[in-house]
Amino acid sequence: MRRNTTIRSSARGRASVRVLYLAASVPPGSWLGRIPDIKTSLAATDARWGLANSLGTLGELTGFLIIAVLIGRLSTRRIAAASAAVAVVASPLLAFAPTLHALSAALFVWMVTAKSLGATMGALALVEQRRAGRMLMSHYDAIYSVGMLAGGAIAWAAIKTDISPSVQFAGTNIILLVGLVIALRNLPDEEASPSAGQSILRRLRHRLQTSLLILAGVAFLASVIDSALSQWGAIYLTALTRGDSSWGALVYPTMMVLKVIILFQMGRLLRSIGWHAALYGSVVITIVAVAVATTTSSPVLTLAGLAVVGAGTAVLGPLVNTGAAEQPRVTAGEARTVLEFGEIPAYLLMPAAIGLLATQIGIGTTLQISTISAIVGCGILGHVTLRRGQLPT
Q1: Which domain holds residue 28?
Q2: What is the model's pTM?
Q3: Residue 359 to residues 43, 47, 50, 128, 366, Cα–Cα distance (Å)
Q4: Does 4 fall in a domain?
């Protein structure tokens, strides 16, 4: 009887973490699908749009600073619950922004809570993975991708049926909020940090282990790819089709399709070919796919290339998160803050950098340079991680 109760408790905990991942992924999927329309409605140039997004992403830095201080001192479960609720309520504000300045402010509010949610839900997912003793992070990453895919599909359908972004965002997020209310009471929690009683500076220094910093480097480069292709891939395809935003709205959902399939099979794939082959295959596949997507004049081939990019980069999330979970003397939440520290510069700087570079050499060439250089870097740092024995075999 006790074993059955434990199994049911674990199942409810995993289900609740899945709801967190959906709450974190459906809104940005919807947002990315409406970017071309919103950018056009605000009459924003590539440079101004990139700058506005970077200013809004300062909210990520604020959210990171908040979670870096609170994690390990307050309950990870409670922080995750509060962050999820506020993020779901705040994200529709993007659709009501009448100016580029208002959009930046709305992004700031959303990103503060989204960053906190990202760190804490990842920590709770690692808690469940440790309890299960098997690969679960790829499953949760797949759930996140499903949420992004669903959000993008909703955006595409809304465009086709002439539903405004505000109505679309509000309707979707009300459903998510109801799901959160039902699921949050079953969320797991993690054990207290060994350094919980120390000063904030000591606790932060305690996390800066060489192995975690290498993984943070992989997280940074993976975020460069995501930041480059998630927004500018849609803008690139919209321009390629002479302003047809419905094509642009398909970019992120298309990228997610193969990625979801690979992530759900990641555990089996890793048991079959191992981390080394998965990592090196990721590098080769991504380079070829980006080259095809940005050199063809066919919208169909561009979409296909971007879909393969999603599959090619699927291994990076499980790699950095599983590696972080294996680190000694830190909780999953503390390890996640180091990974978040690696991701922030990419999301903070890349939108503006790509926007400025695109005005000089074009969006296609810019996407090639940023994505290919980043995936090669992931391959190098990932190789170092594997050589150091930081991942379970």
Answers
A1: 11-187+200-387
A2: 0.77
A3: 16, 7, 11, 45, 9
A4: no
Contact 390, 217 (CB under 8 A): no
Kindly state whether residue 56 falls inside one of the protein's structural domains. Answer: yes
55-106, pLDDT tens digit by residue? 667 887 888 888 888 887 778 888 888 888 888 887 777 777 778 888 888 8
195 domain-assigned: no
> From CA 286, how far away is CA 350, in angstroms rounded?
19
| Closest CA relative to residue 371, chosen from 313, 296, 307, 301 | 313
pLDDT tens readout for residues 132-186: 777 888 889 899 888 888 888 888 898 888 888 878 888 888 888 888 878 777 7
- Three-state DSSP state, 57: coil
Domain total of the chain? 1
- Angle, alpha carbons 156-159-160 (nearest 5°): 90
Contact partners, residue 352, CB within 8 Å, separation at least 6: 47, 50, 51, 53, 54
User: What CATH number corresponds to the domain at position 290?
Assistant: 1.20.1250.20
Residue 136 lies in a domain: yes
Per-residue DSSP letters for 60-86? Answer: HHHHHHHHHHHBTTB-HHHHHHHHHHH
